[in-house]
Amino acid sequence: MGVGYIIGPKIGGVLVAGSVLAWWAMIPLLSTVVDPSLIATQLVKLGYLADINVAGGKGGWDPVLKTFSNPSSAIYFAYIRQIGAGAVAAGGFITLLKTMPTIIGSFRDSVASLKEKNEASIARTDRDLSFKVVIIGSIILVALMTVLPGIPGDGFLQKLLLGILVIVFGFFFVTVASRIVGLVGSSNSPISGMTIATLMGTCLIFTAVGWSGKLYEPLALVVGGMICIAAANAGGTSQDLKSGYIVGATPKYQQLALFIGAIVSSIAIGIVVKVLDTPTVDMAAQGIKHAIGSERFSAPQATLMATLAKGILSYNLDWQFVMVGVFIAVMIELCGIKALAFAIGLYLPLATTLPIFIGGAIKGVIEWRAEKKGEVETRR
Length: 380
What we know:
With about 375 residues, the protein is an all-alpha fold. It has one domain (about 70-115, about 125-350). The protein has 14 helices and two strands, in the order ααββαααααααααααα. It has a two-stranded antiparallel sheet with strand order 1-2. The longest helix has about 30 residues, at about 1-35. The mean pLDDT is about 80.
């Protein structure tokens, strides 16, 4: 509700409208026209259900009765998330186009700052790290991706393409993620939706140059994974810089601290993931090489990403659901409503967006009462 109070009733209403469309219109409609067995088959395809003959999974599938204990959840994970991912991708692209003048202006100022030698003329609260850091850091990132043996790829050119894709998609989704934080906050940012869009874009580029099949799936997942991290960090960084602006901090020193935090956390998280991924003795006896992705650590989001990569690179993805989301976003934008806010609501569960709407409504009521009180005092 705190996020809703910050963003206000208008954007909160657009957010919850997306969820209302998904949960009170699309899901009830799909539940009446789609057979539960087909929904279960779709969940198996996406990795949310082990097998159609096995109970469990999203929505609580019962193979004996051929029903779900929670059909809404099953339909949400089987269809709505893909539709929402398409909407978020389209909404993000539209947002990028609309903010392009701002981005170009910022880029122009950053390039101009390369020639600026005197920081004394810049206010302390406006001093950022030099744009040279961004350029040099991007070059180092691409170079490391081409030489590190742990990065998948057959030869220098493949790894170089991965590095370039990370820079290009990173520029796009870091901008979008920073914008989203202003709408719903860092904790509700649809990182998985942006990662899905990155993964789809990467796989489409691969298929365009003739890279298809199982060999190229790890390459696409590397790009998707790095953009997932970049988008998450972008949201958190934007929130930190905004907080710093409120208290009068120096952005340059905040950014240096964020560098240190990112390096330390990446080492700690890397060690934790490595430990969790190590199979137990019993798992190793069964031939399981990675604990993450097994029944012990099912990792449904990662399974979804892998399924998407396999589907596109093997020319077997349900594009119809993704395109539904794309054209919903286009339609909303044509109606004069912010497509990205609506798309986020379409992707997120109603349980997440409804409290945001309530917070926005509370702010709306408070502002309305304040205006009324001001009118009464003016009349006196």
